[in-house]
Amino acid sequence: MKLQTIACAVALATGGLFFSHAMNTAIAANESTAVMAQKILPTQEQALVSRQLATLVDRQHYLNMRLDANTSNRILDMYLDSLDADHSLFLASEVASYKKKYGPTFGAALKAGNLEGPYTIHAQYRTRLKTFYEFMLAELKKPQNLNQPNVFIETDREKAPFFNTKAEQEVHWKKMLVSQLINLTIAKEEDAAKQKALKDDPSLADGQDLTAAEDLTPVQTLTKRYTRQLERMSRIKSDDVLDKTLNAMLATYDPHSNYFPPVDAMELNRQTTLQLEGIGVSIRPERGNEDYTKIETIVDGGPASKTGQVKSGDRIIGVAQDGDKMVDVVGWTSSEIVGLIRGKRGTKVTVKLLGAGASMSQARSVTIVRDVIQEEDAGVRSRTVDITRDGKKYTIGVIEIPSFYLNYRARRAGDNYRSVAEDTNNALKSLASKKVAGIVVDLRNNPGGSLEEVAKMIGQVVKSGPVVQIRDGNGNVSVFEDNDRGAQTYTGPLAVMINLASASASEIYSAAIQDYGRGIVIGSTTTGKGTAQVQLDSLAYGQATLTQRKFYRITGGSTQNKGVVPDIKLVDIYDEEFGERKAKNALEWDTIPTAPFKREGEIRPYVQQLTTLSQQRVAKDAQFKYLDARKSIAKSAKDQKSVVLDLAQRKAELLALEKQTLAAENARREASGKKPYANWETYQATLDALAESRAKMKTNQRPALPEEETFVTESVNILLDLIAVQKQ
Q: Reduced to 3 states, what is the DSSP secondary structure of residue 574?
């Protein structure tokens, strides 16, 4: 995953804990001498950006690691793994050949703007991938045995050796095919049962359209899927090859130096400024028919909204740039369609739309002028939570901070702009005016952002002093100070919520609150992304981020790798693989001397007592019991490194997981006085209805799910405990 960064940002997590019985992704190919009709060559701009970025990483990366033969070989390994993640595409002899021919000089070639090596390898990759899809389509025409009780397939081949022969590869591919057919057979049966449950009790749909998927057999489904993937190969562009190449180079240095081709650079800017240049719609694949992408929501006052001709539920079947021919996008992925629709402000794009239930003859074309879309619902949000204790009601403020955003381009241009520090300051003032007993700052899932903004925000709750130490690649240390001359917006009781998806600036903030003793930190250990990147937005082509500095707490320990450990721990809902500690080539944790500072409070003497009180509540809380159960179920599924190619056994294994999951769900329903689900199908139908209804809401309109809100409630209780014990 690319990490969308500026100063100290890291990508939003998409992972979670819940078990998904998804079909294994097929990324492999067969030996073939067929030549792809499509020939992809780098442009002069792409060659130039390769030279620029290779020179920068060689001379200016934090590690001071030269692009020598050793580094070049590692880059090639990273590149091959990015193309063939499960090691089932290239043969061992071919990998050896690539290493011999390109390995020692891979970096030097990039530095010279010579992209012949990676582009040649990618061409071979495309040829093999094409042959693989054709192989699988041919196999689908033959009878397949789904009952092989003594045959297994590896589910994790990341560290497995490359196959030695074509015959070995084909054995693995056939196993993949059987495994996928087993998955689809089970999924089809379960979907039929779910549709029957909806038919028997229409109220389960809760008014949502839960149309069944296309009525295809597992063989037909896979045939359609592989045919679509084969067709999609014709849309691979030179940008895709450059993306893989330059990111392999950067990932060899660290996980947070990244290259973004022009389309992806727009997404980077959106993440850091809360602005994008487009037409103001959100889209997603249509339920039940993955060939179509539909418009889900429309931004009020945005370009699409102003036309009056774009409706929620419209299918996008074609896109044309100003003056160009209409491109048929049926069967395209949502991300591919987004890439066509987004563009510079003031330019035109025409979308061909098909209304819900309309025939192709009723399709209409709407021309829209792109504009800057401000994501008003994506910034800081605040609210209050009431808790009654011993007959007395307490009101606690909650501030949700999704990222440390700053529209630095607008500021540089002298335009109006949004900043997270200003939005947070206003929220603190608003909550303080309501006489809240304390404030909880929610940094869960916050990927980071502007260092300047986080320093201001620490100054809003800390009187004065250093906020973070920064060391460059030469060992020079600078101290970032709170420079607001002692001004403090909020001085009352404070708690900070964190989790494994809290990164970078979130870690600087929570570490400072912890080190100053200014408040209590609650949740689970953070990502551990303690590096700072410079954003390179003046490259010849696209943009990049380059790691040049490392963050340290004012007490001297780095936030890198280890992250911030909370004072009070709550269940971690994320897979441990997500954190920096599991990332390839992550920088190490280390320490530097402490910066002089004055502690403003003391939390540590109360931690054990507060932990005991929290554990007593958590042990009785139905939502936390549910989360613990789901985490245990997910771990047991994740620990399985291979699966059997037998339909009956796979059904039995899945049934056991479903039984445990349903029991966990029903236990929490009964605890809250709700009727338990009669069976798995009823439960799944209800989940589908909930997902559909939430997808139609804007972000700030979606109510928190009970398993999410329980973290807020417990954090509020912990803060009230802290207030009480400090008074004692």
A: coil
